[in-house]
Design a protein that fits this description.
single chain; 14 strands; about 180 residues; 6-stranded mixed beta sheet; 4 helices; about 35% strand; alpha+beta; tt1808, chain A
């Protein structure tokens, strides 16, 4: 039996489809993925995260929400929250995508958790500007921070009673992100 052929798109074709779309689309290595709507739990955690982070940032750092695209090697992603410290740099092939986030946050959904922890992590961490990639669990009070250090990437896990301190000066009590 013949296998179905999956069409590959250029980034320019992706941008045309995104412009005409009613939903967010992500681009990865020539494939276009429709982003599903988030659950109430995901939205609650993402909003709490955004409020706590945004209220602590001082210039030149600025927070950007889930409609801000980040351009990485071979991909265009919409993280749940990103921070740019300094002037945002736009991708040469996409006037709406930043290439210089300092911190990227993803709230893990059951359908995206594996990709967020592997493919996305690898691509985000390849950005020279990235200092931290922060994963926030939806199903338990847990945050994992991938932090750049001179000897490479280090990973630290935080649970309910812990506080996460980020390079941009933000402190996050893990328990504040979850309903009591």
């Amino acid at each position: 039996m013949a296998q179905p052929v999956v069409p590959l798109y250029t980034y320019e074709e992706y941008l045309e489809r995104l412009e005409a779309s009613q939903i967010r689309l992500e681009f990865v290595d020539g494939l276009i993925y429709a982003m599903a709507g988030s659950s109430p739990e995901h939205n609650r955690i993402a909003m709490r995260l955004t409020l706590r982070v945004g209220n602590q940032l001082v210039p030149p750092c600025e927070a950007y929400g889930p409609d801000q695209k980040i351009r990485t090697r071979g991909a265009g992603y919409f993280p749940d929250l990103s921070i740019v410290c300094g002037e945002p740099q736009l991708a040469t092939d996409d006037r709406n995508a930043f290439t210089n986030p300092s911190v990227v946050f993803e709230v893990l959904s059951p359908s995206t958790a594996a990709t967020d922890q592997t493919t996305k992590a690898e691509r985000y961490r390849a950005l020279p500007s990235l200092k931290e990639y922060v994963l926030v669990w939806q199903t338990e009070p847990r945050i994992q921070v991938h932090r750049w250090q001179p000897e490479g990437w280090a990973v630290a896990d935080y649970a309910g009673g812990d506080t996460v301190v980020l390079s941009c000066g933000v402190s996050l009590a893990v328990s504040e992100l979850y309903p009591s």
